[in-house]
Amino acid sequence: MFRRRLRLSAVAGACLVVAASAATLGAPAEAEAAPTDEPAVQVTIDSFGPTAPKPGQPVVIKGRVTNTSSVTFEEPQALACIDRTRLASTSALDAISTEQNIPMSERDSCRNLTNDEQTFQPFDQPLAPKETVDFTLTVPWKEWRINDQTGVYVVGVAFRGQPPNSSRIMAGRARTLMPVLGKEPLTRPVNTALVVPLRHRPTQLGGKNFANDSLATSLAPAGSLGRLLALGRQHQVTWLVDPAMLDEIRQLAKGYVVVGENGQTTTGTGQTVATTWLKEFDAGRARGNQVVLLPYGDPDVAGLLDSGEPLKKLVAQARTKTERSGGELAPGFTNGLSLEGGAAAGRYLAAASGGFTGATTDDLNLVSSSSWSASTRPVLTSTPVYDVLTPEGPDQIVRTVIANSSLTTGGPDPETAESPLQVRQRFAAVTALIAAGGKGAASVVVAPPRGWDSDGRATAALAASLSLPWIKATDVADVVAANPKPLTTKAPAAAKTNGVLTETQLDGIRQLDDATTTMQNLLVDGNALPEVMTQALLRSTSSGWNGHPEEARRFSAIELGSANQQLGKVHLVNASVDRGLRKEIKVNLAGSKGTFPLTITNDTDWSVRVGIVVSSANRSDLKIKRLPTAVLGPGQKWTPRITASAEQNGLIRATAQVTNADGKPVGKSQELLIQASQYGSVGWILVGAACALLFGTSFVRIYRRVRTERRNTAAATTAATTTDSSTDSSTDGTTADPAHDRPEANGVPEAPDASLKEGVGSKDG
Predict the structure, then answer these.
(1) CA angle, 361 as apex, 358 and 366 as ends, to 5°?
(2) Reduced to 3 states, what is the DSSP secondary structure of residue 435?
(3) Are 615 and 654 contacting, i.e. CB atoms less than 8 angstroms apart?
């Protein structure tokens, strides 16, 4: 809204009065009341017909007026208006002034028609605030007062009324484009390919788990995807499809659950609508509607390429994924790329259009003409097929189809430009001028920009316009085939960065990419990486996350947790667990060198190649001999012996980390406590002296024992000889005891059981 202009002298006078009052009263002066906004109403044109009148035909305009101000308008009235300047070129349409910097009451580009009562409509009652009234205006041809030539005119409806304490003013206006088909016939038909985008931001978290039910809601007949798909029943269109979305819809049809923020799941209700949508999609392809599959996940091409490696490679991976799996989803599909705005610059177009497995010359590179400035925009009145020069890329020239953005610009007033009526009138106006502007074949491609049509109604209006008499509906493939000799143009200029995802979102993609790459390099067969992990990574790069940062954060966090869970299944075995938490592994290292065992287990369903790295956290003298990697099958364990050395005594805190074949960490590290027992020079001397003393003493004792035993043996031999010689007669008269082999005591024979009775039952006993 515009404020009333105040004269400089009045403002100065008011300031002086305020200053004087403040000085006199000694109190702060009240701030001067700001000028009030102009009272305004909203005028909406709901119906305009015929779309392109011929000379002599009356035009009927229907719509409504809503009082959006806080005042009541007396003597309200709706009037038809026209700017009688004939527009004969598409560039003239683009140059129509929006008059946004002119107060509503002073806009005079659309002159009111008042000569015929049908061209204006007084309302019976004053128009109160928030009240809405309908109008119907029928404008006879003569009231336009224009010639009979083909051209385009700006026409509309203005509202006039009298607010309180004011004269009558124009408080609202709505305009549209009116193409006029002159008496001379149009010189050529316009082959028109309408590209209908079928895209939705990712909602599948993995398997049957979905973040929300928004995709299922969109697939319903009243949803945006339901409306867009229905366009293929009556019109020939080209569908621009994200294959990742098709995967999600197929899972919806099989059954799914929605995972809430608290982790609780509820059964999804979109199984039926998903099944119906897929059947209609297949039927539309059978009717001949072309299917162009985008890179898998519909990635933010500019954002990924600007980020460099490792995210840069995901663009080629997304294109390869579409090329390899697209045939199963949509037989006979076209591998395509769609860029707009700054993302259509040469460095992006060249990098994303090729360099991936399966790239062919039949791939479609679709770019919006809005990517070029108005002064450098290619001329699209005859052909949309161009060879775009891309000297900064690997390919110097890229065959490109340029969609005419002027066909979807809408009406001259920005606030209503995207309404279905305004889109239809703009499309009719541009194509009518192309049909009247030359001879020979003329081809155009219409591609609604991303985020332009949230409910699908404007695109439906474009499809309905394909029935205009000078339009010949076709698809992009036929347009390319009809223009075998493309023109040449330079790639559009662009800013330094042109991605739509935030740095926070890109950082989440980096983390998920690192986990996915680590998992792939862990597997003996990298191609055995679960497809759901690759799909999740590519979905995380979707341009559809633009404007949904919280959903993007949650999606990346869940998928990263899932990837880390798989990595965690390859881990060190630790028998020391306290309250469910793994404790440190304790190791004793005696001497300058020693070994200790560590066990790695593979709890995944695949064969993996693993290594192990031990590093000190608080000492620099711990040295570990590096081990070669080993292959573990599903459920297998590996227990290598770690060779370590330390130069000093003490407790060493270290970590043991499982790695993949590339040396990248797998899962979490395990803490080790290594007790090193290293002896110094003095210690070794003492140990040696102790050993010498021990062994020396033992040798002396053994020598003495041997010598004693030899002497005893000699004495025993001599005694035995003497005894044998005196067996029959002894010199001392004693005789041997034959029962106990010992001498008799004092020559008195010993009782037979004396030894057994000794000490038993005696007083001394």
Answers:
(1) 100
(2) helix
(3) yes
